[in-house]
Structures are given as C-alpha cells and as structure tokens.
Amino acid sequence: MEKIFVKTPMKTYPIVFEEDFLALADMVIQQNLSGRKMCILADKNTAELYGQSVLSQLEKVASAVYFYDFPAGEMFKNLESIYHFYRFFQENHFDRKTVIFALGGGVCGDMAGFAAATYLRGIPFVQIPTTLLSQVDSSVGGKTGVDFNGTKNSIGAFYQPEFVYINTKTLETLPEREFAAGMAEVIKYGCILSNAFFTFLKEKKEDIKNMNHSVLCEMIRQCCLFKADVVSKDEKESGLREILNFGHTIGHGIETKMDFQLLHGECVALGMLAVLELGRNRKDVTKQQLEEVKNLLQYFKLPLFVKYNSVKAIYEQLFLDKKVKENKIGFVLPKGIGEVYTTSNVQKQEILNAIEFVVKA
Ligand SMILES: NC(=O)c1ccc[n+]([C@@H]2O[C@H](COP(=O)([O-])OP(=O)(O)OC[C@H]3O[C@@H](n4cnc5c(N)ncnc54)[C@H](O)[C@@H]3O)[C@@H](O)[C@H]2O)c1
Ligand SMILES: [Zn+2]
After folding, report:
1. Which residues line ligand 1 (CB under 6 A)?
2. Domain 2-173 falls in which CATH fold?
C-alpha cells in the first residue's frame, strides 16, 4: 500500500492510493479505529455509486455502520445540512469515538469534516474523496466548512482527518466537466511549484484525458505530495500556504459574480490566466509561457474567457473576499512557470487589465 504522510502540528496522517475500496478495512485497523460505530456521509450520487462498496468494507471492522445521504451540489453546502447531520448523529447516539467517513467530492468532505470538527468538540473523520478536485486538493490539508449567506466557506474550522483514502478508479464515473475543473487545480500546482510537473502534464496530456490509470495515479500522487508539503510547513495559512490561492483571487470574484454558474475549477482557470497576463505586463512571464498554460487549459476544455458585462463589478467583488486585510488584496503572482511570489502591492489598473483579459462583455 502506497502512502504519503501529511505532518501538521495538530496531527500526522497518511494518504493512501488504491484502485478499489478493498484495503479500506485494513486501513481502519491500522489506524486503530476498528470496533467502533462508523457513519458514512455521502451525497446522493456518490452514495448510489460507491455507498455499497464502502459499507461492505466498514461492516468488517465496525461495531455498527450508519449511512446518511444528502442532496448533491454547492447549494447544499450550508448550515442547514450540518444541522441535519448533527440531528442524525444525536439520534443515533454517536459519541466521541464514532468515526465519520466522507464519501464524495469537496462539498461532502468540507461538510463532513466541519460536522466532525464541531460535534462533541471533535470526533474522528476519514476522507474518501471521489472527484479529481477533492483528490488533489480539498481532502488534504484540514480546511473544513460551509458557505454562509452567499459567502463561500465563511464558516469553518481547521480539522485534520485520521487518513485520506484515494481510490483513483472512482474518477471513471466523474462527469467530464468535473474532471476538467479538477485539472485546473492540477495545472495550478505546476504553475506555482514546479516547471518539471508542468512539463509532465504537457507531455502526458493525452494519457490524462484518456484516463490512463498509471499516469493519473502518478499525477494525483504528485499533487498530494505538493499539497502535503505546503500544508506541513504552514497548516493555518499564515504564509506559504497562500500560494495555493494562485488564480483564486480573481477566480473567486468571477465565481461569485457569475452566481456560481461556473465550476470552481473553471473560475480558477480564468483567474490563473488573468494573473499570468498581469505577470506578462510586469515582464515576469513571457508571451510563450502564457500561451503554454492557455493551451493546456484549452486542451482540457477549460474556459479561456467568460461573458460578463462589468469588469468593474468583479474588481469591486475582490474587496469583499474574506482574505482581504485592511482593504489590501493579497495577490499570488507568477514568475515564469513554476514559481510565484505574494504581494499586495498591485495597482488598480493592473488588476483591471488582468480581469479584462478573461472577462468579455
Ligand atoms: N477544503 C479545501 O481545502 C478545499 C479546497 C478546494 C475546494 N474546496 C471545496 O470543494 C468544493 C468543490 O468540490 P468538488 O469539485 O469535488 O465538488 P462536489 O463535491 O460538488 O462534486 C461535484 C459533483 O460530482 C459528483 N461526484 C462526486 N464524485 C463522483 C464520482 N466519482 N462519479 C460521479 N459523480 C461524482 C457529486 O455528486 C457532485 O454532483 C467546493 O465547495 C470548494 O469550496 C475545498
Ligand atoms: Zn481551488
């Protein structure tokens, strides 16, 4: 069984990579979690697709297994869903030892993690991410939470799982558009941390698109290594971890202003192009480098621009982000491909030009 370890001051835990769910019971035993009540939380889609396989594994090692499913989608990532989780936990007398299993994408993982972090001041939970985005990003690092009153992830907690179980075969049922959205985050790692990884993605793009299993595994594993490394150095985002927000500042602005019609990853793709253009104007990025990223995003059918009538409205939206401190927007800006720096010293006109690059009336 192949493992990567995430080391944080709060906890050290493994990420395992498998091609089925058959090793799940063993992992539960290895992590000293067997013999307890266990509860699978899944959205309707992942419940239907993978609920039974996970359930049959947990039945081997649990004192009792519970199953709770909820409607899929970002619009259900709210406190009302959490309320229903708590109700279910309480009705079934879950105690401090009960283990929660989040079976699904980032929405499920973020919510299950938050419920686990707060029920009885914290009960153990396990991440079983089933989307590309959740396998390369959201399941690793311990950020949990829900949206509140139209603001994304504004209620939450840092809370690390007991382990992360990645079954890469689950990606075979993932809709193409969701897969592409995950690829935006994958490409992000290349842009911020490794030119070599970016080159790997360029060279293997056909294999990735054709879901060549060993290439996919290598790619996901490498992303987890990147994320684990960044998170290990900065669990609570006081510095280094900010680089993971590359493309997210403008991306979030677009995401919110478009009323979440675009997927998160699609907005990240747009946000990355915008800051690459900003970097090009600063002479930190060449035209060719910008084109290379653009071509790769396009290959995975990610959007290169979006139709929206007000660049200014998106600009103003940036100041409403929870990451804005004293009216200063922190930007993660590129230096070529594979290196970034953070700064809040960015002129209004530079930002407007960057937004204009990807937002067309
Ligand atoms: N915690 C973090 O650090 C972090 C990082 C990035 C994103 N996020 C959050 O993650 C969320 C987005 O996650 P997501 O993109 O995984 O979305 P998601 O959880 O909504 O899943 C997308 C869709 O795919 C379906 N699905 C999931 N797995 C499937 C599979 N294997 N086969 C078929 N369908 C499947 C789901 O039912 C859903 O309809 C956002 O809420 C975002 O804020 C969190
Ligand atoms: Zn993201």
Report:
1. 43, 45-46, 49, 72-74, 77, 104-108, 110, 130-131, 133-134, 137-138, 141, 143, 152-153, 170, 173-174, 178, 181, 264
2. Rossmann fold (3.40.50)
